[in-house]
Every structure is written in structure tokens, then in C-alpha cells.
């Protein structure tokens, strides 16, 4: 009786698949036609050919419009279709061409939070596979749709906000001078800053460190999200790498130690200060006038294209580059007659 009820059951008419010669639609047509017609042993070949010819449209239909309706011609026609369209290299090339001609993305639309979530998700995989990316995107869509389904607030808006201070409010875009309104976690300017600057801004604007919203602090935050790196109750954009923190702290301690040692040493003498000044000038000259110094040390004149050519430069006994000229007999201090040459800052 079960078989008779299945036979008498009126089902909607199944439309035959169609194919117009578009290579990107071939695989769908082939699989559906094989499942419905070609693989059926109850359908004679002459009927299969009739079904096949009626399914071909456009350019594909023109190729076989004069095919004679005989049983033998079904296998010939089907083989000709497979030879023309069932080519993996051709299909790959057509799919690539379609992808290549997709509209160009004019601006980045993926939020920083999504990027961080993907990085956190992909750390457990050695290679990013297509299926893993699709699964990740499905999860993100489900999460975003769930977050959009918020209960509607009935009554006075201001009263409702005062009654529920930890309900996330739209983040004002004027904090960083952005033209379009968006949440701080999606702000490209905020994301471009280093972690310390983000933390300082969150503190200055009295934002919750967990969700980056106003009107409440972390202890009152109802958001279930945590840092994707350390799982602590702060936003991922405010996470500080402990290794970097320890390195910065060690560097700061070293600076303090060296400063202490320097301050505890006796005062520098005038001769020591002069020697230090001379050494700094030599380093500056070597950095700015390396070629000129090299020529003069070898007893040659500076290159005619040198900016110092008109100064008639020379090296003093200490190897300092000084201005030459005709003031040798002038009754003025030596340092004034032949000043040290330094590059303009």
C-alpha cells in the first residue's frame, strides 16, 4: 500500500535543466541531467535525445539544431557535448576570468575585529584552506545576525538609557575626527595607533576597556566578548604583548641605571667637554662630507662638483674640516678665521 500511495501522490512537475553554452553553468547542468535522464535505464535513448535537445538553448542549442532524432544519435550528441564543454582546464580558465572581472573593491570593509578574529582562528591551522575560511565566514555571519537582533526599547529613550547604563550606545565618530559615524572598534584611525595610544585614548574618553563603549566600566560590562589573545576582560585592540612590555621595562630600567651612574660621576672638566664637542663635530662631518674628507686626507682637492669647493676647505692638525681663504694674516681669533664646516640642519 505504501508503494501505491507514493505513485498516487501528486508532486510538482520537475523542470528539465537547461544549458545555453555558458561554461560556468556546465557542471550544474551535467550533474542534474545525468541524475534525471542519462542514468535512467527506463528511458530509451531516443527519448533521452529528445530531452537533451530540448534542454539545450542559445549557442549550445545551435550546435545540435539539425541533429536527427534517432536512438544512436543520443550517445553521439552526449559525447560531443562532453568533448566540447567537459574540459577541466577550460572550466578553470572561465571561472578565473569571472573572478578576475568582479567589481573592484574601492575601500576595505572588513572590520579590525573580524581581522583579529580570523587571525585568532587561523593560528591553529598550518595552512588556510578554503573550507576553513567558509566555515569561519558562516560563523561570523551568524554572530553578526544574532548581535543585530536586539530587543526594541519602548518608551522614553533617555529614560531607558539611564535605566540601563551598560547597554552599548553608538560610538561618536568625533573622538578621532572621522567623517562617517562608526564604532571605535571599526575605526581605521584607532586601529592604526599603537596599543599604548589606544589605551590612553580609552582612559581619556572614559570608555569601557572591554567593549569600548561609554556609560559604564569593565566591572559593569555585560558583553560576553573577551580578548581573543589572552581571554582577559579587555578588548583585543588593547592587548599588550607581555614580551614587548618586559623588553620595554628592561630598557627603561637600563636608561635609569645609566642616568644614575652618569649623575653620580664627578663633573666634566672643560678639556673633556672640548674633546667631546670635537668628537661630535668629527662624526657629523664624516656623515655629511665623507667624500670631501676622503679627498683631502689623500692630499687631493675636493671635487669640482662639491658644495664646499668655493670654501677652499682644508684639514687642520686634528683632522677637522675647516674653511680656508685669505684671512691668514687677519688679526682675529683662529676659530673665526677658519671656522669648522658643518652641514645645515
Provide a quick synopsis of the model.
With about 350 residues, the chain is an all-alpha fold. Helices cover about 50% and strands about 0% of the residues. Among the domains are: about 25-95, no CATH class; about 170-240, no CATH class; about 275-335, no CATH class.
Explain what the structure shows.
Helix 3 runs parallel beside helix 5. Helix content is 49%, strand content 1%. It has a two-stranded antiparallel sheet. Among the domains are: 23-95, no CATH class; 170-238, no CATH class; 274-337, no CATH class. It has 345 residues and is mainly α. Residues 157-173 have low confidence and may be disordered. The longest helix is centred in the C-terminal third of the chain and has 23 residues, at 242-264.
Main β-sheet description = 2 strands, antiparallel
Q: Which secondary-structure class do the elements indicate?
A: mainly alpha
How far is the first residue's CA from the last residue's CA?
Answer: 101 Å
Rg from C-alpha positions?
A: 40 Å
**What percent of the residues sit in helical stretches (DSSP H or I)?**
40-55%
Number of helices: 15
Amino acid at each position: 500500500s505504501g508503494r501505491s500511495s507514493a505513485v498516487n501522490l501528486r508532486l510538482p512537475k520537475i523542470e528539465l535543466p537547461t544549458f545555453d553554452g555558458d561554461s560556468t553553468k556546465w557542471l550544474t547542468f551535467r550533474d542534474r541531467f545525468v541524475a534525471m535522464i542519462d542514468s535512467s535505464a527506463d528511458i530509451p535513448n531516443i527519448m533521452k535525445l529528445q530531452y537533451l535537445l530540448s534542454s539545450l538553448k542559445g549557442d549550445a542549442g545551435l550546435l545540435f539544431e539539425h541533429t536527427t532524432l534517432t536512438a544512436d544519435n543520443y550517445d553521439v550528441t552526449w559525447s560531443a557535448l562532453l568533448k566540447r564543454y567537459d574540459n577541466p582546464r577550460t572550466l578553470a580558465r572561465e571561472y578565473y576570468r569571472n573572478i578576475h572581472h568582479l567589481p573592484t573593491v574601492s575601500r576595505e570593509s572588513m572590520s579590525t575585529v573580524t581581522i583579529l578574529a580570523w587571525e585568532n582562528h587561523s593560528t591553529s591551522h598550518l595552512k588556510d584552506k578554503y573550507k576553513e575560511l567558509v566555515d569561519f565566514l558562516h560563523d561570523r555571519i551568524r554572530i553578526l545576525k544574532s548581535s543585530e537582533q536586539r530587543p526594541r526599547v519602548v518608551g522614553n529613550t533617555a529614560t531607558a538609557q539611564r535605566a540601563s547604563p551598560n547597554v552599548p550606545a553608538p560610538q561618536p565618530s568625533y573622538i578621532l575626527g572621522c567623517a562617517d559615524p562608526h564604532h571605535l572598534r571599526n575605526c581605521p584611525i584607532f586601529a592604526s595607533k599603537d596599543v599604548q595610544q589606544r589605551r590612553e585614548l580609552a582612559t581619556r574618553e572614559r570608555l569601557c576597556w572591554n567593549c569600548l563603549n561609554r556609560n559604564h566600566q569593565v566591572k559593569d560590562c555585560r558583553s560576553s566578548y573577551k580578548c581573543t589573545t589572552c581571554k582577559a576582560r579587555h578588548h583585543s585592540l588593547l592587548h599588550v604583548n607581555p614580551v614587548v612590555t618586559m623588553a620595554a621595562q628592561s630598557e627603561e630600567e637600563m636608561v635609569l641605571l645609566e642616568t644614575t651612574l652618569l649623575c653620580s660621576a664627578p663633573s666634566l672638566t672643560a678639556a673633556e667637554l672640548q674633546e667631546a664637542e670635537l668628537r661630535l663635530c668629527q662624526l657629523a662631518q664624516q656623515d655629511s662630507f665623507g667624500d670631501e674628507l676622503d679627498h683631502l686626507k689623500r692630499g687631493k682637492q675636493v671635487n669640482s662638483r662639491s658644495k664646499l669647493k668655493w670654501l677652499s676647505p682644508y684639514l687642520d692638525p686634528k683632522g677637522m674640516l675647516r674653511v680656508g681663504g685669505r684671512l691668514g694674516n687677519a688679526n682675529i681669533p683662529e676659530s673665526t678665521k677658519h671656522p669648522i664646516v658643518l652641514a645645515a640642519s
